[in-house]
Amino acid sequence: MRLQGKVAIVTGGGRDIGRACVMRLAEEGCAVAINYHSSSEGADSAVAEITAAGGRAFAMKGDMTKRANVQALVDKAVADWGKVDIAVPNAGGIVKRVPLLEITEDFWQTVMDLNCTSALLLAQACVPHMAPGSSIVNMASQAARDGGGAGSIAYASSKGAVVTMTRGMAKELGPNIRVNAINPGMIDTDFHNIFTKPEVRTNVANAAPLKREGLPVDIANLVVFLASDESAYMTGACVDINGGLLFS
Description:
The chain has nine helices and seven strands, in the order βαβαβαβαβααβαααβ. By secondary structure, it is an alpha/beta fold. A seven-stranded parallel β-sheet has the order 3-2-1-4-5-6-7, sandwiched between helices.
Protein backbone atom coordinates (compact mmCIF):
# COMPACT_ATOMS: atom_id res chain seq x y z
CA MET A 1 0.00 0.00 0.00
CA ARG A 2 1.55 3.26 -1.20
CA LEU A 3 0.16 5.47 1.58
CA GLN A 4 0.39 3.20 4.59
CA GLY A 5 0.22 5.18 7.84
CA LYS A 6 -0.76 8.46 6.18
CA VAL A 7 -3.66 10.64 7.28
CA ALA A 8 -5.93 12.15 4.63
CA ILE A 9 -8.78 14.66 4.77
CA VAL A 10 -11.33 14.64 1.95
CA THR A 11 -14.09 17.25 1.82
CA GLY A 12 -17.27 16.54 -0.10
CA GLY A 13 -16.43 12.89 0.51
CA GLY A 14 -19.94 11.45 0.74
CA ARG A 15 -20.58 10.86 -2.94
CA ASP A 16 -19.22 10.69 -6.48
CA ILE A 17 -15.59 11.81 -6.90
CA GLY A 18 -15.14 12.58 -3.22
CA ARG A 19 -16.30 9.17 -2.07
CA ALA A 20 -14.17 7.45 -4.70
CA CYS A 21 -11.17 9.39 -3.39
CA VAL A 22 -11.99 8.34 0.17
CA MET A 23 -12.14 4.67 -0.76
CA ARG A 24 -8.98 4.66 -2.88
CA LEU A 25 -6.98 6.53 -0.23
CA ALA A 26 -8.18 4.04 2.38
CA GLU A 27 -7.25 1.13 0.10
CA GLU A 28 -3.74 2.55 -0.10
CA GLY A 29 -3.42 2.62 3.69
CA CYS A 30 -4.65 6.08 4.72
CA ALA A 31 -6.72 6.94 7.72
CA VAL A 32 -9.41 9.17 6.18
CA ALA A 33 -11.38 12.04 7.68
CA ILE A 34 -14.50 12.48 5.56
CA ASN A 35 -16.43 15.73 5.38
CA TYR A 36 -19.94 15.77 3.99
CA HIS A 37 -22.59 18.45 3.73
CA SER A 38 -25.75 16.50 2.88
CA SER A 39 -24.57 13.05 1.70
CA SER A 40 -24.55 11.40 5.12
CA GLU A 41 -25.53 7.98 3.77
CA GLY A 42 -22.54 7.82 1.42
CA ALA A 43 -20.13 9.11 4.05
CA ASP A 44 -21.39 6.76 6.76
CA SER A 45 -21.30 3.75 4.44
CA ALA A 46 -17.73 4.64 3.45
CA VAL A 47 -16.71 4.67 7.13
CA ALA A 48 -18.44 1.32 7.64
CA GLU A 49 -16.68 -0.26 4.65
CA ILE A 50 -13.27 1.10 5.63
CA THR A 51 -13.49 0.06 9.26
CA ALA A 52 -14.84 -3.38 8.32
CA ALA A 53 -11.72 -3.86 6.21
CA GLY A 54 -9.51 -2.92 9.17
CA GLY A 55 -8.94 0.70 8.20
CA ARG A 56 -9.49 3.97 10.04
CA ALA A 57 -12.07 6.60 9.10
CA PHE A 58 -14.62 8.98 10.49
CA ALA A 59 -17.28 11.20 8.89
CA MET A 60 -18.25 14.69 10.01
CA LYS A 61 -20.95 16.99 8.68
CA GLY A 62 -19.89 20.55 7.93
CA ASP A 63 -20.08 23.55 5.64
CA MET A 64 -16.58 23.96 4.21
CA THR A 65 -17.17 27.62 3.41
CA LYS A 66 -17.22 28.26 7.19
CA ARG A 67 -13.82 28.44 8.89
CA ALA A 68 -15.13 27.03 12.17
CA ASN A 69 -16.50 23.93 10.42
CA VAL A 70 -13.24 23.37 8.55
CA GLN A 71 -11.20 23.80 11.72
CA ALA A 72 -13.39 21.33 13.59
CA LEU A 73 -12.79 18.70 10.92
CA VAL A 74 -9.04 19.17 10.98
CA ASP A 75 -8.92 19.33 14.79
CA LYS A 76 -10.67 15.95 15.06
CA ALA A 77 -8.33 14.34 12.53
CA VAL A 78 -5.30 15.64 14.43
CA ALA A 79 -6.78 14.63 17.80
CA ASP A 80 -7.47 11.11 16.53
CA TRP A 81 -4.36 10.53 14.43
CA GLY A 82 -1.82 13.21 15.32
CA LYS A 83 -1.18 14.77 11.91
CA VAL A 84 -2.37 15.51 8.37
CA ASP A 85 -0.42 14.18 5.38
CA ILE A 86 -2.89 14.64 2.53
CA ALA A 87 -5.61 17.24 1.97
CA VAL A 88 -8.16 16.86 -0.83
CA PRO A 89 -10.53 19.86 -0.87
CA ASN A 90 -13.18 18.31 -3.09
CA ALA A 91 -16.26 20.17 -1.79
CA GLY A 92 -17.81 22.29 -4.54
CA GLY A 93 -20.34 22.53 -7.32
CA ILE A 94 -21.97 24.67 -9.95
CA VAL A 95 -25.06 25.44 -7.78
CA LYS A 96 -27.07 26.25 -10.92
CA ARG A 97 -26.53 27.47 -14.46
CA VAL A 98 -26.94 31.26 -14.67
CA PRO A 99 -26.37 33.39 -17.80
CA LEU A 100 -23.93 36.30 -17.58
CA LEU A 101 -26.52 39.07 -17.33
CA GLU A 102 -28.40 37.27 -14.56
CA ILE A 103 -25.41 36.70 -12.24
CA THR A 104 -25.90 38.58 -8.98
CA GLU A 105 -23.18 39.54 -6.54
CA ASP A 106 -24.59 37.10 -3.99
CA PHE A 107 -24.63 34.20 -6.45
CA TRP A 108 -21.09 34.98 -7.63
CA GLN A 109 -19.80 35.04 -4.05
CA THR A 110 -21.64 31.83 -3.18
CA VAL A 111 -20.00 29.95 -6.05
CA MET A 112 -16.56 31.41 -5.37
CA ASP A 113 -16.81 30.50 -1.68
CA LEU A 114 -18.03 26.98 -2.43
CA ASN A 115 -15.29 26.12 -4.92
CA CYS A 116 -12.32 28.29 -4.04
CA THR A 117 -12.61 29.73 -0.54
CA SER A 118 -13.37 26.27 0.83
CA ALA A 119 -10.07 24.97 -0.58
CA LEU A 120 -8.20 27.94 0.88
CA LEU A 121 -9.70 27.38 4.33
CA LEU A 122 -8.80 23.69 4.31
CA ALA A 123 -5.20 24.43 3.35
CA GLN A 124 -4.90 27.06 6.07
CA ALA A 125 -6.20 24.63 8.68
CA CYS A 126 -4.12 21.66 7.52
CA VAL A 127 -0.71 23.18 6.78
CA PRO A 128 0.31 23.71 10.45
CA HIS A 129 -0.10 19.94 10.93
CA MET A 130 1.62 18.82 7.70
CA ALA A 131 5.19 17.51 7.85
CA PRO A 132 7.68 17.60 4.96
CA GLY A 133 6.50 15.24 2.23
CA SER A 134 2.83 16.11 2.63
CA SER A 135 0.57 16.84 -0.32
CA ILE A 136 -2.47 18.97 -1.17
CA VAL A 137 -4.52 17.91 -4.19
CA ASN A 138 -6.96 20.63 -5.25
CA MET A 139 -9.99 19.92 -7.42
CA ALA A 140 -10.22 22.32 -10.36
CA SER A 141 -12.05 21.55 -13.63
CA GLN A 142 -11.78 21.49 -17.38
CA ALA A 143 -14.08 24.50 -17.13
CA ALA A 144 -11.10 26.44 -15.75
CA ARG A 145 -9.47 25.99 -19.15
CA ASP A 146 -12.35 26.26 -21.61
CA GLY A 147 -14.84 28.48 -19.73
CA GLY A 148 -17.34 25.69 -19.11
CA GLY A 149 -20.74 25.08 -20.64
CA ALA A 150 -23.70 27.40 -20.94
CA GLY A 151 -24.49 29.32 -17.77
CA SER A 152 -21.33 28.31 -15.92
CA ILE A 153 -19.25 31.50 -15.97
CA ALA A 154 -19.24 31.74 -12.18
CA TYR A 155 -18.30 28.08 -11.78
CA ALA A 156 -15.56 28.22 -14.41
CA SER A 157 -14.16 31.39 -12.88
CA SER A 158 -14.06 29.84 -9.42
CA LYS A 159 -12.21 26.81 -10.76
CA GLY A 160 -9.80 29.08 -12.63
CA ALA A 161 -9.10 30.70 -9.28
CA VAL A 162 -8.34 27.25 -7.85
CA VAL A 163 -5.77 26.69 -10.63
CA THR A 164 -4.04 29.99 -9.88
CA MET A 165 -4.22 29.41 -6.14
CA THR A 166 -2.63 25.98 -6.63
CA ARG A 167 0.38 27.53 -8.35
CA GLY A 168 0.80 30.20 -5.69
CA MET A 169 0.49 27.67 -2.88
CA ALA A 170 3.05 25.42 -4.56
CA LYS A 171 5.57 28.25 -4.56
CA GLU A 172 4.89 29.28 -0.98
CA LEU A 173 4.72 25.81 0.59
CA GLY A 174 7.59 24.13 -1.27
CA PRO A 175 9.81 22.28 -0.72
CA ASN A 176 8.04 20.73 2.26
CA ILE A 177 4.49 20.47 0.89
CA ARG A 178 3.57 19.75 -2.70
CA VAL A 179 0.39 21.29 -4.13
CA ASN A 180 -1.19 20.10 -7.36
CA ALA A 181 -4.65 20.26 -8.93
CA ILE A 182 -6.80 18.11 -11.15
CA ASN A 183 -8.90 19.33 -14.09
CA PRO A 184 -11.61 16.68 -14.61
CA GLY A 185 -13.60 16.69 -17.83
CA MET A 186 -16.96 15.00 -18.23
CA ILE A 187 -17.24 12.59 -15.28
CA ASP A 188 -20.27 10.39 -14.60
CA THR A 189 -21.51 12.05 -11.40
CA ASP A 190 -24.64 13.66 -9.96
CA PHE A 191 -23.14 17.00 -11.03
CA HIS A 192 -23.92 16.12 -14.66
CA ASN A 193 -27.02 14.09 -13.81
CA ILE A 194 -28.51 17.30 -12.45
CA PHE A 195 -26.97 20.07 -14.57
CA THR A 196 -26.17 18.57 -17.99
CA LYS A 197 -28.64 17.28 -20.57
CA PRO A 198 -28.21 13.60 -21.53
CA GLU A 199 -27.72 14.44 -25.20
CA VAL A 200 -24.94 16.88 -24.34
CA ARG A 201 -23.20 14.23 -22.26
CA THR A 202 -23.44 11.74 -25.12
CA ASN A 203 -22.05 14.25 -27.62
CA VAL A 204 -19.16 15.18 -25.33
CA ALA A 205 -18.29 11.54 -24.68
CA ASN A 206 -18.37 10.72 -28.39
CA ALA A 207 -16.11 13.68 -29.18
CA ALA A 208 -13.39 12.38 -26.86
CA PRO A 209 -10.79 9.96 -28.28
CA LEU A 210 -11.59 7.47 -25.49
CA LYS A 211 -15.33 7.65 -26.40
CA ARG A 212 -16.70 7.63 -22.87
CA GLU A 213 -17.35 9.72 -19.81
CA GLY A 214 -14.86 9.43 -16.99
CA LEU A 215 -15.64 7.56 -13.81
CA PRO A 216 -15.12 8.86 -10.26
CA VAL A 217 -12.47 6.20 -9.73
CA ASP A 218 -10.49 7.60 -12.67
CA ILE A 219 -10.13 10.84 -10.72
CA ALA A 220 -9.49 9.03 -7.45
CA ASN A 221 -6.61 7.08 -9.01
CA LEU A 222 -4.99 10.35 -10.05
CA VAL A 223 -5.50 11.80 -6.57
CA VAL A 224 -3.67 8.80 -5.09
CA PHE A 225 -0.79 9.29 -7.52
CA LEU A 226 -0.47 13.01 -6.75
CA ALA A 227 -0.65 12.31 -3.01
CA SER A 228 2.06 9.66 -3.16
CA ASP A 229 5.83 9.82 -3.49
CA GLU A 230 5.45 8.54 -7.05
CA SER A 231 4.77 12.17 -7.99
CA ALA A 232 7.54 13.55 -5.76
CA TYR A 233 8.88 15.93 -8.44
CA MET A 234 5.47 17.39 -9.29
CA THR A 235 4.13 20.57 -7.73
CA GLY A 236 2.10 23.44 -9.10
CA ALA A 237 0.78 21.14 -11.84
CA CYS A 238 -2.84 21.23 -12.99
CA VAL A 239 -3.38 17.84 -14.57
CA ASP A 240 -6.01 17.39 -17.27
CA ILE A 241 -8.05 14.17 -17.17
CA ASN A 242 -10.76 14.24 -19.79
CA GLY A 243 -10.44 11.26 -22.13
CA GLY A 244 -8.49 13.37 -24.61
CA LEU A 245 -11.28 15.90 -25.22
CA LEU A 246 -8.96 18.81 -24.42
CA PHE A 247 -5.21 18.37 -24.66
CA SER A 248 -2.76 20.01 -22.25
